Each structure stands twice: as C-alpha cells, then as structure tokens.
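non-reducing end alpha-L-arabinofuranosidase
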Amino acid sequence: MTHGETARASLTIDPAFEVGETNPRLFGSFVEHLGRCVHTGIHEPGHPTAREDGLRQDVLDLVRELGVTLVRYPGGNFVSGYRWEDGVGPVEQRPRRLDPAWRSVETNEFGLNEFMRFVEVAGVEPMMALNLGTRGPQEARELLEYCNHPGGTTWSDLRRSHGHDTPHGIRSWCLGNELDGPWQMGHKTAEEYGRVAAETARVMRMVDPGVQLVACGSSNSAMPTFAAWEHTVLEHTYEHVDHISCHAYYEETDGDVDSFLASAEDMEHFIDSVVATCDHVRAKLRHPKRVEVSFDEWNVWYRRLRDPATEPAWEVAPRLLEDNYTLTDAVVVGSLLITLLRHCDRVTAACLAQLVNVIAPIMTEPGGPAWRQTTFYPFADAARHGHGRVLRVEPRSTRHDTAQYGEVDLLHATAVQQDEDTVAVFAVNRSTDRPLDLVADVRAAGSTRVVEHRVLADPDRHARNTLAEPDRVRPRRLDGAAVESGTLTATLPPLSWNVLHLRR
Ligand code: AHR
C-alpha cells in the first residue's frame, strides 16, 4: 500500500456479543493542587464569572459539557505530603504551606469542603485520595470520620461546625498515590505499602463499612517493579480493597508519530497484565471477589519536554504542566478512551488527568476566558455516547509497522449500544496520510441509518486551540456514511477521531 491510497477496515456489530456494561465512573477526571488546576482553574474569587463561593461559572459550564462523572482529589503527588486539616475551617485562619511535590506554595484557601461544593455544583461524584506517604491509618480514619460520620464526635462535629451538618457520604477512596515511585513523598516498597494499605483499609471499614477502596498499583507499566508490585500489594490487601489503580501517560518522542498513535497497545497490555495479576492472587487466596481496575490517571503528557530546573519555585499557583494539545494528541486520547471502553468489564473507574490547566482538556486565563483544548472533544463524545453495553466488535484493517509496538491495525474501534435502537461506533484512523474505508455488518443490531458521522480531523496534525484561536480545532459533521441492506459504509479521514451514530 502506498501513501495516500485508501486503507480498508471491517467489523461486525452484533448485540449478542458484549464486553459488558459501562460503569459511569469510567468518565472521571482529576483535580490536584498543582499549578493552576485549583487556583485560577476551578476556583477564582473575583473572576468576572465567579459565583459567590469563588467557583468559576465558565469552567463549571465546560465541566458539565465535558460530561465528567467522577473527580479524583486532591492529588497526585501533592497528596502524599498533604494535611487535610489545613484545608478546612475559616479560610483566613488556614496555613500557607510549602508543597514539596511541585515546589509551590499552597494557600489552602480551597480545601475539602470547597471541593465538595464543586462536586455538588458540577454534578459529579468525588473520589478522595488519602495521604499514605507521610501519614497513615490514624489520619485516614480521622478524615473519614470528619467526612462521613453523622455527628457526636470531635471530628464529625468539627465538620458540622464548618457548616456541613449532613455528612458528605464519600464512597470512593484511594489508599495513597503512586507509592511505588521514588519521586513520591513517603515512597515505599511493595511490602511496606501493602501492609499500611491493608491496615488503613481495615480501620476505614470499621468507621464506615460502605467505603470503596482503591489500592495503589504501578505508576506506569515501565516501572521496574511493575506486576511484582501489584502481586505483593494484592496479597496483603486483596480482601480489603475493591480496585487496584493504573496510571499511564503517553507522548510523541523523536517524531515517531506511528508509535505514539498506537499508545493504546501499551494501555491494553497494562490492563491485561494487571487483570491477570489480580486473578492470579484471587486464585491463590481462593477468594470469591474479583478486584477491578481504577485507571485513575491517564492522558497524553509531554513529560520529556519538562525541565523542573527552569520551572517557577515556591510560587502560588504557578503555570506548571500547561501542555497545549494538538490534533494528534486528541486522536491518541480518543484511542485511549476506546481501550478503556473495550475493557469495561474490568476497568470500572478511570480519570483523565487532569481537569483544568494542568495537562487538561479545559484551559483558563486568570481574569480571562476558558476554552476547550483539542482533547476535550473525544472525551466529551465518549462521555456523552459511551454509556451502555460495550459490544465485542473484533475490528480488522490494513496494518502498518510501528517502531515500539510492531505491526498494528490502522483502525482502532469499539461500539456501545446505548439503548435498543441506538449504537455509537467510536473509531480512530491511525494513518497520518491514508483515509480508511470502513465496512461494518450491522444486520444483527438492526441499524438502518446513520444519524450523524462526527469527526475530529485537520489537514495540519499539529493544529491546536489557543487563547488567541480557541476554536481552531473543532469536530464537524461528515457526509457520506450510510447503511444499506445491513451494511454500514463510512470513510474515516487520515488521523481522525470518529463517532458514528446508528439508529434502527
Ligand atoms: O498528574 C500529574 C502527576 O502525575 C500526579 O501528581 C502524579 O500522581 C503522576 O505522576
């Protein structure tokens, strides 16, 4: 096949073959006290759109449009040195602290109760991360008592005195963050972490048996301790936890765009390996429960371009990790979403890291506007149309060679049956220069028409949205896709994210 020539792809959409039902928590995101994610991101008292509580209304509107369902908070690396008590009570009495993780100053004017206000107004579920770096089970149970106990004890009454009579009722808790990483405050061996996570989990369940707990898995699949870490941690924690976490960030290196566009191969291998490890421990322990995966940090992040030595030190809300995403990055994000959907039987929570300004789909200027990065669009599409039954579609297509992953399919796709009559097909064309002719057998689904073919593509793969040009890259409707006699045909432009809405 020569460059520019059309490539071919096929798949079958048959509701009889399903992966599973998507958990709404699959479309989560992440707010960390890092850079401008909180301060001048979601919270900016004095901004022209700020509400009385200091939350930016323009950002809230975009968060709702993005379709986020769950938000992890308050970190990240930040949480491993955090004292949650610093962020509650009268704002003027809260301490300013150094945050060693990001070499910043934290004012603490936004904390737990402000976050709970944010989740309420944004209509999302909170996922709270605990400090198991510099702290342990005692502080975790006190925080849980503050949040979830109705009253009549010091910690629960403290919450009530802070104006929250009704308990927050937070269900989802992460037992620390990336404690396998030597960069993490309180970094631990798998044995050390496994023990403290198990003990923290036990104590937390004594306080509130209804909590759902996430043990820390590996910070990425290239960690030298990968898989052994999960194995040891799960041997200690299996009976106490519901999830194990995965984190992964991808970037284009040395102009190797084909490998970058195939990043989902790594994510797929990561999930399969963690699931296999969970099931191995389950078999060994003869345990009836299946531990699920919380992919609670994932995204494109140009980490190699970062030079911490040149970044601002000990400032409040500095500009950190403000990656400006291209069309190519958005297609990779779409492909990673497809991977999460294709594994929805075991991945039951996931968080795009992060939500605003910091490697984020939403950008803001202090005192100025908020806008959508390119990566906003695939996430919003998946969050809007990805709830339902994920079907096993077994795509086949022209393949090409990549330096990192060998031969891969040009088509990466999945389909979600939203209701009896509606199917959404999510598809990525990984070729940078060839359109992809897709033929799908939709007879079993009974689809008779294409309601819309929505596409994100651009002749310039480096095109981005910026403050000066916030709408440079936007999705558009594409004509030409059709269903005839049970066969869907559509052409996917080179390097594109596609959503095909099919109806009976
Ligand atoms: O999301 C940015 C950082 O990436 C988080 O703080 C950390 O958990 C991960 O390494």
